[in-house]
Amino acid sequence: MRDIRVAKPYARALYDAALEQNALESIIADIDTLRELIEQSEEFTQFIHSPVLSPQFKSETFQELFADAMQPLTINFFKLLALKQRERYLIAVMDVFSEIVDEAAGRLVAKVTTAVPLTSEQEKRLREQLSAYSGKQVRLETTTDAQIQGGFIVQLDDTVFDASIASQLQRLKQQLAKG
Q: d(Cα 135, Cα 156) in Å, to the nearest integer?
């Protein structure tokens, strides 16, 4: 919970600065790149979270790593987080930033859990069905969890659609126990 409280003002500041500089799409792309890097590189994640590395070192390293690959606003933003010793909240800031972007675009986020990854065609059909259901554009955040055994679970705002095999088996078990 503390992460979100710390992240909100930083995410809002980044969003407002991106709008002001007419660089929102570029910043969104930079955020996506950072998200991928964090997911794929344990070293980068350790770099962000390391309490041993000085804020100045983190700031300079980020500048060196991304000077040619990212917008100056993104680089300056990370440097600010590092110098304020808030870089460990980077993931929360990125999540809140994405929420702000989605909200401003009138888009909903559907969190989808499946036992196996969805194909691009399945994602497209699901996105279309959820958009028709909600009346808004929907962006999918997908995860896989073999424990649901099959089917899917979708959370769209406060609504949960649970069509997982594990839940169906649990309901069947409860019905059999009742007699």
A: 12
Residues 113 and 26 in one domain: no
Are residues 116 and 95 located together in one domain of the fold?
no
Could you give the 3-state DSSP secondary structure of residue 163? coil
- Entry field: residues in the chain: 179
Three-state DSSP class for residue 155 = strand
> How many whole angstroms separate alpha carbon 101 and alpha carbon 107?
8
pTM: 0.73
pLDDT in tens, the chain (179 residues): 578 888 999 999 999 999 999 999 999 999 999 999 998 999 999 999 999 999 999 999 999 989 889 999 999 999 999 999 999 899 999 999 998 999 898 888 899 999 999 999 999 999 999 999 988 899 898 989 989 888 889 998 888 989 888 888 888 888 888 86
The one-letter code for the residue type at 5 is: R
- DSSP assignment, residue 148? G
Clarify whether residues 9 and 94 are in a common domain.
Answer: yes
Domain boundary among 68, 85, 102: 102
The DSSP code sequence of 76-132 is HHHHHHHHTT-GGGHHHHHHHHHHHHHHHTTEEEEEEEESSPPPHHHHHHHHHHHHH
